[in-house]
Design a protein that fits this description.
This protein folds into three domains: 64 residues, no CATH class; 216 residues, Transferase(Phosphotransferase), domain 1 (Orthogonal Bundle), CATH 1.10.510; 222 residues, Transferase(Phosphotransferase), domain 1 (Orthogonal Bundle). 37% of the residues lie in helices and 13% in strands. A hairpin with a 2-residue loop joins strand 9 and strand 10. Helix 3 runs antiparallel to helix 9 and helix 17 runs antiparallel to helix 22. The longest helix is centred in the N-terminal third of the chain and has 19 residues. It comes from Turnera subulata.
């Protein structure tokens, strides 16, 4: 059994083990998780279906591996990494270490730690920086360590260190760290260049294989040279010159010991993937069990965000949002809560939301967009979950509509800014699928001091760097869209197309132009009583349109001048009758029952930019 501290790491390992079937990846048999004591050492643990001989690190320190066992270990790990990196986006381990690889009774290497995994079905972190805490000492790529950005070549570097340890019997230990001794790759560079300098004639054939291995059965001198060169290419200081794991696996399969003694090495299974498939099917038959309350300890009292001067702004789907003070400036503070009225919160769900939001907001594409909130920091301790945004808020769009505190120009500015953001999120990139927010709500849009809309909640965000939401943890699969903004027609089952965001956008626009908003509670009015007989804004708008169409013509042809703009807004500066008609038509098209008939956000932005108010007040609207 392996102890863990962060339950998010436990979740990732359980999900990864459920979906990634490979004979060199440990399969969990059961787990221990007691939420009440989750912050205590040992309160979280995994039990693997594995009969271990010892870790690869310990076996290398003891020198207890034969030559063919070493080659088998190198081949097995390379096969696993090639499998991981073949996904789109590639699945990165990021903390490869000989201590994280167990050798089973048959000599197979089994990777059992995935606490830093990214990519694949999880967040793609290749473009994120400042991830300095990842990786294991002695295996971290120095090129990665400086900016804190990781790529598949970072795993290749770590694999090169692993391969050097396998052939040279050198591993970086705690004693080496204490006495500040050179890393394995630093020793290898110096030794490699030293041996090359002593060879005056012919092509240099340098070998870093430990002398004790040269007398082992199945040892071939040419293999020693090939493995040395391969390891040195893996630890090249230029990541662009490092081979891919696919090429590395190909080189290993061409070794003499592999081609001549495949049954002994077990290489026939790497040449044919039928074995991996059959083994994976057999592993699926093992039952999962839950072990709880292995450990008990006292948890200190919560401190959280009590030191901030907070002013309540309003509610979002799973908590509250406040004004706060940070270094003499006004910021926005969002706090997740377990006790929310209208939405069910499952165990650890808010933790997952917060961690995903942090990853999303740290991504370079997210940082660059003016209508996405900017993250200053976060609180994640002992049940307190919160984030601090670099945003001086005026109010949420929900509150502003309820208070009727917006001018016509401000309403148009919010609509075009919000549409531009959704167009940005829905755009495909060469690496990622479009984002789908799935819980859009006027209460999730904050207005800054210039009345520009800023989206600040992403509790059901999918797509983009979160590539496959269907594979996410089971407790996140039942999506809870926000009241009044849920497209019930298009979200049957597990399908959430981007047009569902378009539906919610149409509801937001209707609220802006009609001064109507669907409400189940008013956090600023304790006397408010919800009347379920009042139709949703979307239903009210469609009913009004059908009634107007019936009045316009006995044939039911749509009225050409139909508008839902509130009469008080018609008299404001910047209002054009043609704009009111076009915005109404656009909002209603977003509510079309058949989502394939709805306009895309790209088309919506294009039509909004043609409004007369945009052309005549572009500078006032910040366009």
């Amino acid at each position: 059994m392996r102890r863990m501290i962060e339950h998010s790491f436990l979740d990732d390992e359980l999900e990864r083990n459920n979906l990634e079937l490979h004979p060199n990846l440990a399969r969990e048999f059961g787990y221990c998780y007691d939420k009440e004591y989750a912050l205590c050492l040992g309160a979280i643990g995994l039990v693997y279906r594995l009969a271990p001989l010892d870790s690869l690190h310990n076996l290398l320190v003891k020198g207890n591996l034969t030559w063919h066992q070493r080659v088998k270990a190198a081949l097995g790990v390379a096969s696993l990494l090639e499998h991981m990196h073949s996904q789109n986006p590639p699945c990165l381990i990021r903390n490869i270490s000989a201590a994280h690889i167990m050798i089973d009774r048959d000599g197979n290497p089994i990777l059992f730690d995935l606490s830093m995994v990214s990519g694949g079905i999880f967040c793609d972190k290749r473009d994120l920086v400042n991830q300095y805490n990842d990786g294991c000492v002695g295996y971290v790529d120095p090129v990665t360590a400086r900016p804190g950005a990781w790529s598949d070549k970072s795993d290749v570097f770590s694999y090169g260190i692993l391969l050097l340890g396998i052939i040279s019997n050198r591993v970086y230990t705690e004693e080496d760290y204490t006495y500040n001794r050179p890393f394995v790759y630093e020793w290898a560079w110096n030794e490699y260049e030293s041996q090359k300098s002593k060879m005056r004639f012919g092509k240099a054939k340098v070998s870093l294989v430990h002398p004790s291995q040269e007398s082992e059965p199945f040892f071939y001198p040419d293999d020693a040279v090939k493995l040395t060169n391969l390891a040195m290419h893996c630890v090249n200081s230029d990541p662009r010159k490092r081979p891919t794991m696919k090429r590395i696996l190909g080189h290993l399969l061409s070794l003499s010991v592999v081609t001549r003694h495949a049954p002994i090495i077990g290489a026939q299974w790497f040449l044919s993937r039928d074995y991996a498939y059959q083994l994976s099917r057999s592993l699926l038959k093992w039952p999962r069990q839950k072990f709880s309350q292995f450990f008990r300890c006292e948890i200190p009292a919560n401190k959280g965000l009590s030191g901030h001067e907070l002013n309540f702004i309003g509610n979002f789907q799973y908590g509250r949002v406040y004004r706060g003070k940070f270094q003499a400036r006004t910021v926005t503070v969002k706090i997740w809560e377990l006790d929310v009225k209208f939405y069910q919160v499952y165990k650890n769900q808010n933790e997952v939301r917060m961690l995903d939001e942090i990853l999303f907001l740290q991504h370079p594409r997210s940082i660059s967009h003016p209508n996405l909130v900017k993250l200053l920091g976060y609180c994640y301790e002992e049940g307190k979950l919160g984030v601090v945004y670099d945003l001086n808020p005026v109010d949420t769009v929900f509150n502003a509509v309820m208070k009727d505190s917006l001018t016509w120009l401000q309403r148009v500015k919010i609509a075009i800014g919000f549409a531009s953001l959704l167009k940005f999120l829905h755009a495909k990139t060469p690496q990622h699928l479009p984002y789908v927010v799935r819980n859009l709500d006027a209460a999730h849009i904050m207005l800054d001091q210039d009345y520009s809309p800023v989206l600040y909640d992403f509790g059901w965000l999918t797509g983009g760097i979160f590539p496959e939401w269907r594979s996410k943890r089971a407790r996140l699969r039942l999506v809870q869209a926000c009241y009044g903004y849920h497209d019930f027609v298009s979200t049957r089952g597990d399908e959430w197309p981007a047009e569902c965001d378009g539906y919610a956008f149409g509801v937001v626009v209707l609220g802006l132009i009609t001064k109507r908003i669907s409400v189940r509670e008013d956090p600023h009015n304790p006397q408010f009583v919800w009347d379920p007989k009042i139709p949703l804004v979307s239903q009210w708008a469609l009913d009004e349109y059908e009634a107007a169409a019936a009045r316009a013509s006995s044939t039911g042809s749509p009225p050409s001048t139909f508008t839902l703009v509130h009469q008080s807004l018609v008299e404001e500066p910047g209002f054009y009758a043609s704009d009111g008609i076009e915005i109404t038509r656009l909002a209603l098209e977003c509510l079309t029952p058949r989502f394939l008939d709805r306009p895309t956000m790209k088309h919506i932005v294009k039509r909004l930019l043609k409004l007369s108010v945009i052309r005549s007040h572009a500078s006032d609207l910040g366009i």
